Amino acid sequence: MRIRTILALTILCLFAAESADQRKPASGPLRVLEGNPRWFTDGTGRAVYLAGSHIWQSLQDSGLLMREGGGNPPPVFDYTGYLDFLERHNHNFFRLWRWETTKWTDSYTGNVVKYCRPHPWQRTGPGQAADGEPKFDLQRFDAGYFGRLRSRVDTARLRGIYAAVMLFEGWEMQFTDGWQNHPFHAANNVNGVEADANGDGKGVEYNTLQDTPMGRRVLELQEAYVRKVVDTVNDLDNVLYEVCNEALPESTAWQYHLIRFVKEYESKKPRQHPVGMTFQYRGGSNTTLYDSPADWISPNPGEPAHDYRVNPCSGCTTKVVVNDTDHLWGHTGGDNIWVWKSFTRGLNVLFMEELLPSPTWQDSARAAMGQVRRYAEKVDLAAMTPQESLSATRYCLAARGREYLVFQSDKGEFSVDLRDAKGAFAVEWLDVNADRVIAGKPVQGEAHRTFTTPFPGPAVLHQKLMK
């Protein structure tokens, strides 16, 4: 009861403020914007910028990952309050997390046992699984799980929020003892299915292609589950898919296969949605993401010259990039500087939340994601690309000759190259820390122009051609 009380008080602190007016339903389905493929579009020709916070309990109720707190049944997550939180901060995107095992412990909280429910398959028995509940029947889907999946995606849609539906989760197989309670471990299902090919008790082969009779059977069941997910949410406009969170590097062929599988299956459906691939942890390579058949990717920090934490790469890939703190720091990094750097380098952003009550270091990133979304709708984003050479700050989105958005990470003087821009430009400053807009004096194009930030701290300079 103490854990539930703490969770309830945390939720109340987070969601006490009044919710913002409800936005229009999310439009779509999203597709890569032709001619400027760093952005998505909803089919209208406008660019749709994605930014938001995500949390581990958004689909299933589960133990408090990274904090002590378990119990069975696990604490019930306040999903409505979570959407209120996203809407209040002007966020429009999150990952709909999936956990695959029913019970586990991890190194973050020692021997505290975590539980998770519901799951995609019915627990019919006969016989008990390792967690003491009836075994799974992997050929019978659980209507409650898929009903919740659809309801949560659709509720987010009505509030203008896009959801990346996570199909599989690979981190837990590598870094917890969860395989002992996984539905595809033979002790836990009535179908005689065992995906732990080498019998070492980890089950990481579940996220790989295995050319054996059992491996092919596992893949068939995985594909049946994917078809069921697609059937459940295909008609909803706010859907993206993520194949697997942080599976091991050996998962590449399996993930590529499933990306193509989703695309092929949806090609016969009324709607087609973007399919994403996120970083393979531990030991993966961003090149694997760049070379994948995915529509969108989430990299890890990468090489020092193009560190997605401090110097995000604007030209490393032609795919839509969702720069996610989960793959850059885990749950311990990201701030307003990182958000604005990512945006002005042409990257969408996601922030790994713990939903800690304010004030906290996380507030900076939360506020900045709302800011970049506001500017993404204010500027002609579909026409804007990263133009590092146009500003001494190296952080500039521009539709040359028409509109410029420049980020300066600290107070100071910097120049903007307007030599090929004719006419007068309206000037506006954003004080990032204070979220305060200040009008500046118009400037003339056809020259290098020097600007000095009118306040301390990080600043955004917006210049637009005056009519």
3D architecture notes:
By secondary structure, the chain is an alpha/beta fold. The chain folds into two domains: 383 residues, TIM Barrel (Alpha-Beta Barrel), CATH 3.20.20.80; 78 residues, Immunoglobulin-like, CATH 2.60.40. Helix content is 25%, strand content 25%. The N terminus is likely disordered.
Strand order of the largest sheet: 4-16-15-14-13-12-11-6
CATH top level assignment of the largest domain: Alpha Beta
Class from helix and strand fractions: alpha/beta
The first-to-last residue Cα distance is 63 Å
Number of domains: 2
The main β sheet shows up as: 8 strands, parallel
Strand percentage, roughly?
A: 15-25%
Radius of gyration: 23 Å
What is CATH's topology name of the largest domain?
TIM Barrel
Give the full name of the CATH homologous superfamily of the largest domain: Glycosidases
Whole-number average pLDDT?
A: 92
What shape does the CA trace take? Answer: elongated
Return residue spans where pLDDT drops below 50 for at least 5 consecutive residues: 1-21
Compute the number of helices: 10
Number of strands: 24
Helix content: 10-25%
Summarize the structure.
The chain is an alpha/beta fold and 467 residues long.
Please outline the helices and strands.
Elements: H1 2-14, E1 31-32, E2 40-41, E3 47-48, E4 51-54, E5 61-62, H2 79-88, E6 93-96, E7 103-104, E8 114-117, E9 121-128, E10 134-141, H3 143-158, E11 162-169, H4 171-175, H5 213-233, E12 239-245, H6 252-266, E13 275-278, H7 286-290, E14 296-298, E15 320-324, H8 325-328, H9 336-344, E16 348-352, H10 362-378, E17 385-386, E18 396-399, E19 403-408, E20 413-417, E21 424-431, E22 436-444, E23 448-452, E24 459-465
Parallel strand pairs: 4-16, 6-11, 11-12, 12-13, 13-14, 14-15, 15-16
Antiparallel strand pairs: 1-2, 2-3, 5-8, 7-8, 9-10, 17-18, 18-19, 19-24, 20-23, 21-22, 21-24
Helix pairs in contact: 3-5, 5-6, 9-10
